[in-house]
């Protein structure tokens, strides 16, 4: 199902139009002002990356230069980046719970000080 983006020349609003078939000619109407004066925009696209490229990205220390190991929220952001790069093999309920705990300012260390 193709998705096309248009910009209204009257109010400058970006409109997304979904079609069920490539051959279908959708009615171009601005969602905000009702104008038919729309121009088609170049849409973004996704480029799949190999597992090797994803791992190389994670191995680059420049990608983690902003991580403060003393700040749980900073660690959570780094973990989210790692999870996004690794995809399904690095996600799950336990991972999400750990990241959410860090984002709330908590600590992963659940051992009690003696």
Tell me the overall shape.
elongated
- Written as H for each helix and E for each strand, in order along the chain, the element string is EEEHHH
Q: Which ranges are low-confidence, i.e. pLDDT below 50, for 5 or more consecutive residues?
A: none
Summing up helix and strand content along with how strands pair, one would put the structural category as alpha+beta
Number of domains: 2
Average predicted local confidence, pLDDT: 80
In DSSP terms (H or I, runs of 4 or more residues), the helix count works out at 3
**What's the total number of strands?**
3
Rg: 22 Å
End-to-end Cα distance: 60 Å
| Sheet with most strands | 3 strands, antiparallel
Biggest β-sheet: strands ordered side by side in the sheet: 2-1-3
Description of the structure:
- By secondary structure, this protein is α+β, with helices and mostly antiparallel strands.
- The chain folds into 2 domains: 3-40; 51-103, no CATH class.
- The chain is 31% helix and 12% strand.
- It contains 3 helices and 3 strands.
- The chain has helices at residues 51-59, 72-86, 93-103; strands spanning 3-8, 14-18, 38-40.
- Strands 2-1-3 form a 3-stranded antiparallel β-sheet, with no helix packed on it.
- A hairpin with a 5-residue loop joins strand 1 (3-8) and strand 2.
- Helix 2 (72-86) packs antiparallel against helix 3 (93-103).
- The chain is elongated.
- The N and C termini lie far apart (60 Å).
- 5% of the residues are buried.
- The mean pLDDT is 80.
């Amino acid at each position: 199902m193709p998705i096309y983006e248009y910009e209204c020349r009257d109010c400058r609003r970006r409109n997304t139009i979904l079609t069920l078939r490539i051959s279908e000619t959708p009615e171009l109407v601005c969602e905000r002002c009702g104008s038919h004066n729309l121009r088609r925009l170049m849409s973004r696209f996704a480029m799949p990356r190999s597992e090797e490229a994803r791992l190389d990205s994670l191995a680059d220390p420049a990608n983690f230069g902003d991580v403060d190991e003393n700040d749980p929220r900073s660690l959570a952001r780094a973990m989210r980046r790692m999870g996004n790069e690794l995809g399904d093999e690095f996600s799950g309920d336990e991972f999400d719970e750990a990241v959410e705990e860090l984002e709330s300012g908590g600590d992963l260390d659940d051992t009690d000080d003696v």
